[in-house]
Amino acid sequence: MAQVTLIPSGxxxxxxxxxxxxxxxxxxxxxxxxxxxxxHCASCMARIVSxxxxxxxxxxxxxxxxxxxxGLALLCQARALTDLQVEAREVxxxxxxxxxxxxxxxxxxxxxxxxxxAVFLRLPAVEDLHYRAGQYLDIMLSExxxxxxxxxxxxxxGRLIELHVRRASTTGFTAQLFESLRPxxxxxxxxxxxxxxxRGESPRPALMVGGGTGYAPLRAMLRQLVATGDRRQVTLYWxxxxxxxxxxxxxxxxxxxxxxxxxxxxxxxxxxxPAAGLGAGLVxxxxxxxxxxxxxxxxxxxxxxxxxxxxxxxSAAAGLPREQLHFDSFDYAPDTLAKLxxxxxxx
Length: 347
Ligand code: FES
What we know:
Layout: E1 2-7, E2 12-15, H1 21-27, E3 45-50, E4 53-54, H2 65-69, E5 72-74, E6 79-80, E7 84-87, E8 100-113, E9 116-122, E10 136-140, E11 146-150, E12 161-166, H3 173-178, E13 186-193, E14 206-211, H4 215-228, E15 234-240, H5 249-258, E16 262-268, E17 279-280, H6 283-290, E18 298-303, H7 305-317, E19 325-329, H8 334-346
Parallel strand pairs: 1-7, 14-15, 14-18, 15-16, 16-17, 18-19
Antiparallel strand pairs: 1-2, 3-5, 3-7, 4-6, 8-9, 8-13, 9-12, 10-11, 10-13
The chain binds FE2/S2 (inorganic) cluster.
């Protein structure tokens, strides 16, 4: 067991042997910045002021050799070899949310696309889950494993929690959600989690960029804006491989015609000559081509690590201050990645 002290706050916590430093901090209730928890997005990067860390799988892709040399580390992957002093900023949780561990039941499932399922969860009648539109929750599995899913419904939508689940593998938990887990099945969730939510106090127009089911938290934000009568300017870029992946295209088109401040820009990565009204290529390229100057926007990006990384680097060059970029990097849990690797090896 190692002791970790945060600088400058002086908060401390312990990490178990083999436990990622970030996991120890979150277990202790300290809300350090993070997103993918997979070593890709770099949002958990912090400076190791004293002590030693190691990465069991080698240097993660989200940190360069120069950054390691400069004493930086990705806390979601780093294991403490000694006691540590870590310079890291603690993120204040939203004042009106409380992280809870709750049982819930699957109320119903709806197929949204061939590989995407909407799963509706019902909480116990005596429990409430207060969250900000855009946050995520974890479904707790056996042996301490967990799966993170963005909440696709808005707080204003009522008591059912809606998740948009993309099938990640043929045998893992998402496959169970598609097949064997039926309405009535009992799950345990922990949440709300994450720092991805709409900054309601900002006067700047919002640019939203979603890749695949990265649309889910942006949808929650949109639904909350609609429900609360917020008329701020919002442009949503939603990227998918093909039209099946744009599973709420009609609703978004209807919203665009009803709501003057809202613009919807669908982008297909597999289409060479897409139908009228659909863009072709990578969704973040489409957003950046339309907005070469980003300083006047709040940007909300949600999707796979490569998309988030491209937006992080390119948006800085387009003049976007770091505090106006909010992102949620979707990554597979480590045990799913291992399984996907095994499946890829087998096929
Ligand atoms: S790299 Fe650590 S949370 Fe993404």
